[in-house]
Write a structure and sequence with these properties.
By secondary structure, the protein is of the alpha/beta class. It has 26 helices and 18 strands. The protein folds into 5 domains: 219 residues; 51 residues, no CATH class; 167 residues, Beta-Lactamase, CATH 3.30.450; 171 residues, P-loop containing nucleotide triphosphate hydrolases (Rossmann fold), CATH 3.40.50.300; 91 residues, Helicase, Ruva Protein, domain 3, CATH 1.10.8.60. 59% of the residues lie in helices and 10% in strands. A hairpin with a 2-residue loop joins β5 and β6.
């Protein structure tokens, strides 16, 4: 069962009816003491006290709303009882007036000491009223032969409340709007104090209407202080009043000058009012309305922003224009991203990293108070309040007029740094309200863009995960295809006809190598060939194979560096777990020669397995119980003899006895000329050139070059020369630049020789 919302007791309306009835009845019964006009005006003032909080209040907290309503009702009762107390036998009304006045002052004291006001603190407002009631019961309440009892006691109490308001507003750092809420009740208390003192000093000669007006001033001040009356509208109202008074003044001058033409005076007043109105709106606005225009531009541009950079431009551009400096350091701090968005002179937003640790003091202040903070407001309190110094230092560091916080569901999500620029005025109430309205619009746009950004990030992560999954699936499929291809495809058997077996042997080292090849070809022992990078040891291995009795069988070349370590065992012996079974290296090379390069890539288990198959003449595929026979010769090609020591002892001894070293080109100078011509013939055929010759000077230089990369470096140099040659012969100018440097030394030595002969 749904419960209906409880209805509040209409204290203001009841107090208005009671005060109006008391005042009017007193005016009818006591025509000698108070005139009916005064009684009527007093009743209207009482009605105003009762209904003003009800009609004009729009407070930010329920406790403030309740305090203002109760204060207005009590003020109305006090005003009405001040008239009813004229009747001698109406002591009850006198005591009621004293209680109501004491309660109003108690509420005012609470507002002065605790802002914002909380509901649980309102019970302390009954203390002054209870004190007044106790004194009245025992007859100790000071009275005077006047209509308002106890004015001599109420006057200092009201003055004390006034002092509390102004002292609290002057010593507590708070936003300007809250400061105004403190000052306005203080002004009302000051007006009440003045009327009470006047009544106490002048006695019955002063009309009770004066005291009623003081109570009305107190009620209005309390209402404005605890409520959220749009103080920004008062500035516009004042500007319009100024234009209206200017128009009336002009009409009065014209009427005094031409009294016979009242319509002319009226027309002149209207014309002057029309001219003064826009001028007053422009000149009388704070800082000529620049910040107000910026707030309106922010409200127009923020809802149209589609990205965070668009929002930064829509917010920061108007603020820079209001500061009258396009280089003013306006910034938008986005806390969830830890980014600072600034706008350059061209209007483009530039994100940079935001250090939240360095701005901790300012962010803590904004989170605690949830209201804008301004440097000019904090500056007078820095000396007495040490905790304000880092906040002011942060604002001064950014050359900021203030900081405007942006919240989403009570959580601080962003901060707008308002640039100071050329502004020297303090922010007005009208600008505060405009900034607050603009902040609400920007908060909505920022929350919308943040939600959209989070959705896009989630979508991007989902797409990335899907792409990664697809790539992983494709990679697995490719790996599986390669594994199947490697498992099912037979090993490549080299054909002797496809190998370049060109051999040049003019140098003594080359002729000695030929004799060594003939010795190695006569037996089937393993051979270890050592060759520097750039040589062609495979041609040497093929010559050994061709000169042996195994030349009619296969010559299998394997680069161990192209195989994974966990695949080497299956690659050497074969894999019977596959369908069809995978043929291993040793089985493919049965009866022939197995040439192995990159021996350093073999694991210890692979070396042992290969050496066992070589020595025993048998091997067994993985997954099979029966083995197979294989007889092959092993030739290993390496850049040095270091990897030879990793083989089993018997195999190492065979390698050590059957090792051969392929001399580099620098040890075979007599062979370089022939290698140059062979390389030149290949380069011309590859590049589609006619046969070229070599200039003697170029041949001398080519023969003298050290060739660190041996035949590879020679082929590269000849290919470069063929591509640059524009004549029938290769000259020194066609050779690589590094070689041409050496030609200068060769030329100098040649010149020195000719000089000696001479």
């Amino acid at each position: 069962m749904l419960r209906s919302k409880p209805r509040k007791i209409p204290w203001s309306e009841l107090a208005a009816l009671f005060s109006g009835w008391v005042a009017l009845s007193a005016g009818q019964r006591l025509p000698g003491f108070i005139s009916p006009a005064e009684a009527t005006l007093t009743g209207l003032v009482a009605l105003g006290c009762a209904l003003a909080p009800r009609r004009a209040h729009d407070g930010p907290a329920p406790a403030m709303t309740e305090a203002a309503a109760i204060g207005g009702a009590l003020a109305a009762i006090a005003v009405a009882c001040s008239v009813g107390g004229l009747v001698p036998e109406s002591a009850v009304l006198q005591r009621l007036q004293a209680l109501a006045t004491g309660e109003v002052l108690g509420l005012s004291t609470l507002v002065a000491l605790s802002l914002p006001l909380e509901t649980r603190a309102m019970r302390w407002a009954a203390v002054p009223a209870l004190l007044v009631a106790a004194l009245a019961v025992y007859g100790m309440w000071p009275t005077a032969a006047v209509w308002v009892p106890g004015v001599r006691a109420f006057a200092p109490l009201s003055g004390l409340v006034t002092v509390l308001f102004f002292v609290h507003a002057a010593t507590r750092p708070m936003p300007a709007l809250d400061r105004a809420r403190q000052i306005l009740p203080g002004l009302g208390a000051a007006a009440l104090t003045a009327t009470l003192l006047a009544r106490a000093l002048l006695g019955p000669g002063l009309s009770p209407l004066v005291v009623a007006l003081g109570m009305l001033a107190q009620t209005v001040g309390l209402t404005l202080g605890t409520g959220a009356i749009a103080l920004d509208r008062s500035a516009r109202f004042a500007r319009r009043c100024a234009s209206a008074f200017a128009g009336l003044g002009a009409g009065a001058v014209v009427l005094a000058t031409v009294p016979a033409a009242p319509w002319l005076a009226l027309a002149a007043g209207v014309v002057v009012m029309g001219l003064v109105w826009p001028l007053a709106e422009t000149r009388l606005r704070p800082d000529e309305g620049r910040l107000l225009e910026a707030c309106r531009a922010m409200q127009r541009g923020a809802p149209r922003a589609e990205t965070l950079t668009d929002l930064a431009a829509a917010v920061l551009d108007p603020l820079r224009l209001a500061a009258r400096n396009l280089r003013a350091p306006a910034a938008l701090w986005v806390l969830d991203r830890a980014e600072t968005l600034r706008v350059d002179v061209t209007g483009a937003a530039m994100p940079t990293k935001l250090s939240l640790d360095s701005e901790k003091a300012l962010l803590g202040w904004l989170r605690a108070r949830k209201s804008p903070v301004f440097a000019d407001l904090l500056r007078p309190f820095v000396v007495r309040r040490a905790e304000l110094r880092p906040v002011l230092a942060a604002l001064d560091h950014h050359e900021a007029l203030g900081a405007l916080p942006l919240f989403d569901q009570g959580e601080l999500i962003a901060v707008v740094m308002l640039p100071r620029g050329a502004r020297s005025e303090v922010v007005s109430y009208e600008e505060l309200r405009a900034l607050d309205d603009a902040a609400r619009v920007v908060e909505g746009s920022l929350a919308r863009l943040s939600a959209l950004d989070r959705a896009q990030q989630r979508l991007l992560r989902a797409q990335t995960q899907e792409t990664d999954a697809i790539e992983a699936r494709d990679a697995l499929a490719l790996a599986l295809a390669r594994a199947n291809e490697r498992a099912t495809a037979p090993l490549t058997v080299l054909s002797l006809g496809s190998l370049d077996l060109t051999w040049v042997a003019y140098a003594p080292a080359s002729r000695a190598l030929e004799a060594r090849i003939d010795q190695l070809a006569d037996n089937d022992a393993p051979v270890w060939i050592t060759a520097e990078p750039g040589l062609r040891p495979l041609a040497l291995a093929a010559r050994i194979h061709q000169g042996s009795a195994r030349r009619a069988h296969a010559l299998v070349h394997i680069d161990a560096g192209q195989w994974r370590s966990d695949e080497l065992a299956a690659a050497i012996a074969g894999d019977g777990r596959l369908s069809p079974p995978r043929i291993g290296w040793v089985e493919q090379a049965d009866g022939g020669t197995l040439v192995l390069s990159s021996p350093h890539a073999l694991t210890h288990e692979a070396r042992v397995l290969l050496a066992g198959a070589l020595e025993d003449g048998r091997a067994r595929r993985l997954g099979e119980r029966e083995g197979y026979e294989t007889r092959f010769r092993l030739i290993v090609m390496a850049h040095d003899e270091v990897a030879m020591h990793d083989w089993p002892r018997a195999t190492f001894a065979a390698f050590e006895a059957q090792s051969v070293r392929l001399p580099p080109l620098r040890e075979r100078r007599e062979d370089i000329g022939s290698w140059v011509l062979l390389s030149l013939d290949r380069a011309c055929r590859v590049q589609g050139r006619a046969a070229l010759g070599v200039d003697p000077a170029a041949m001398t230089l080519l023969s003298a070059w050290p060739y660190e990369d041996n035949l590879d470096e020679l082929d590269s140099a000849i290919a470069y020369a063929v591509s640059r040659c524009r004549s029938a012969r290769i000259t020194l100018e066609d050779l690589p630049p590094a070689m041409r440097v050496l030609s200068r030394g060769v030329g100098r030595h040649a010149s020195d020789g000719r000089h000696d002969d001479a």
